[in-house]
Structure formats: structure tokens, C-alpha cells
TrEMBL record:
GO terms for molecular function: oxidoreductase activity, acting on the CH-OH group of donors, NAD or NADP as acceptor. Gene3D superfamilies: NADP-dependent oxidoreductase domain. The keyword NADP applies. Residues 24-259 form the NADP-dependent oxidoreductase domain. Substrate binds at residue 109. InterPro entries: AKR, Aldo/ket_reductase_CS, NAD(P)_OxRdtase_dom_sf, NADP_OxRdtase_dom. The lineage of its organism: Bacteria, Bacillati, Bacillota, Bacilli, Bacillales. Keywords: NADP, Oxidoreductase. The record marks 76 as: Lowers pKa of active site Tyr. This is Aldo/keto reductase. The keyword Oxidoreductase applies. The active site is at 51 (proton donor). Belongs to the aldo/keto reductase family.
Length: 274
């Protein structure tokens, strides 16, 4: 297993298991950030209209010299753009900024109440037209997924949720696994809040790895797709150096039991303030 390792989604396409997130990476910085990641072997880039950096992501992919079909790019529709017609327009805007003929994965960014079922219909439309290779959701809890299933013709291939050792979201992960929805972890390092955790520091030392590497490896061993963010090429390289060790069963059990339901981002049931 290495940076080229992929996970097969339920519609048959594959997604690289380790990617790069570009949340809050400024437009003027994202080109270099994505370029360095691609140079290191990353083939999975996660952006969103809300991030304001789709154009830089697109340029970096175009100028990389790597065939487009070898790079997996995700974008998302923001809350203010939800609803059927608005979502179709938002998708076109994202495609214009990225400069792509197709997208690999398009997500609903948050489950805006009463609106996301119509938003999903728009995603099904762009999928039907083969403008995107796959569609999914982000920040959906199990009850949102259950509500969506009542009217959806397509099951999301991915649910991208905040997930790290202090927030394991077991009920949502269990729902996804039961319905063959891949789980993708955003903020997989807990926004660096746990990198000085004494138990994890000691544990990582046993493997001659950093705490960040230990946590990323934990995601992979739990069959999660993981998209740590870093604008620093050396840190990107460090984050990718996680395929040459395995966490022992006892250490993995300890990490699996660290959950405190400690959310860093917003709660998916409270989207009004986003």
C-alpha cells in the first residue's frame, strides 16, 4: 500500500485512499500547494466552491503534466447555492473555475434542512449526464442519510465527515458501511489539537513516526479515506510516509477508544450559521 492505493466505490470507480485537502488555503497559495503534492505522488485533491480556490486547483492540475484521468478531484456545492436549479448553476461555475471537462466527485457540502433532497436531484442530473464520475455528501449524519434515501435514486458513494480519534462518529460510520457508502475523514488530525497528546506521542515513538503519521495510519487501517491538509511540501511528504508500518492491535484498540464526541467544526444539525 502506498500513495497510489485506492478504494473502490459502490458505483465501480476508485478513489485514492490518501489525498490532500485545501480548506482555507488562499487562492494565491493553492497552486503551489497542489503542485507540490502532485510532485510528491498525491493523486487526490479535495476542494469546494466555498474554499474560493477552485481556479488555482484547476491550474495546478492542468500544468502538472500528469494526465487528467490520473488525478481525482472533488468539489462541493455550498449551502447558499442549494436547491435544484441553483445547484446546477453552481456546478457549472465550479467547472468553469476548475477548467475541467468532468469532475471526479461532487458533494453536497452540508445537509441544509428541507433543501438537500432537491439538491441531490441536481447531483443525480449531473451524474446522469456524466459531467461527474460520482456523487456524494459531506457532513451528513445517519439520520440525514436516511432522509435522503427516501427520495434518492442514487445512493451517495461517499460521506465526507469530521472524523479523528476524539470524534469517531460510530453511528454514522456504521450506517455508511451497512449501505456501502465510503467514509472520508476531514480534519483527520483534529486540526493539530492532539499532536502533543502524551499517550499518542509515546505510541508514535514506538514506530519511529510522528503523531500525525500515527493518526493518518489509524484512519487508513480503519478503512477510511483521509484528506489531511498541509501547504508545506515537507509536511505533505511526512503525511504520505505512512505505508511502511502497521499499528499493533493493542495500540489501535486504544486509539479506537479515544472518542469523546469532541467536535471542532459545526454540528451538521446546525447549518444556519454556516
Amino acid at each position: 500500500m502506498d500513495l497510489s492505493s485506492t478504494k473502490k466505490l459502490h458505483n465501480g470507480i476508485t478513489i485514492p485512499r490518501l489525498g490532500l485537502g485545501v480548506y482555507k488555503v488562499p487562492e494565491e497559495q493553492v497552486y503551489d500547494t497542489v503542485s507540490s503534492a502532485l510532485d510528491l505522488g498525491y493523486r487526490h485533491i479535495d476542494t469546494a466552491s466555498f474554499y474560493g480556490n477552485e481556479e488555482g486547483v484547476g491550474k495546478a492540475v492542468h500544468n502538472s503534466g500528469i494526465p487528467r484521468e490520473e488525478i481525482f478531484v472533488t468539489s462541493k456545492v455550498w449551502n447558499d447555492d442549494q436547491g435544484y436549479e441553483n445547484t446546477l448553476k453552481a456546478f457549472d461555475r465550479s467547472m468553469d473555475k476548475l477548467g475541467f471537462e468532468y469532475l471526479d466527485l461532487f458533494l453536497i457540502h452540508w445537509p441544509v434542512p428541507d433543501v438537500f433532497p432537491e439538491t441531490w436531484k441536481a447531483l443525480e442530473k449531473v451524474y446522469e449526464k456524466r459531467q461527474t464520475r460520482a456523487i456524494g455528501v459531506s457532513n451528513f449524519l445517519d439520520h440525514h442519510l436516511g432522509e435522503l434515501a427516501k427520495t434518492a435514486n442514487e445512493t451517495p458513494v461517499v460521506d465526507q465527515i469530521e472524523l479523528h480519534p476524539k470524534l469517531t462518529q460510530k453511528s454514522t460510520v456504521d450506517y455508511c458501511r451497512e449501505h456501502h457508502i465510503a467514509v472520508e475523514s476531514w480534519s483527520p488530525l483534529g486540526r493539530a489539537k492532539y499532536l502533543d497528546d502524551s499517550a499518542l506521542v509515546k505510541m508514535a515513538g514506538k514506530y519511529d513516526k510522528s503523531v500525525a503519521q500515527l493518526i493518518i495510519r489509524w484512519h487508513l487501517e480503519n478503512n477510511l479515506i483521509v484528506i489531511p491538509k498541509s501547504t508545506n511540501a515537507s509536511r505533505q511528504k511526512e503525511n504520505a510516509a505512512v505505508f511502511d508500518f502497521e499499528i499493533s492491535p493493542e495500540d489501535k484498540k486504544y486509539m479506537d477508544q479515544m472518542n469523546e464526541n469532541l467536535r471542532i467544526g459545526s454540528h451538521p444539525d446546525n447549518t444556519k450559521g454556516l
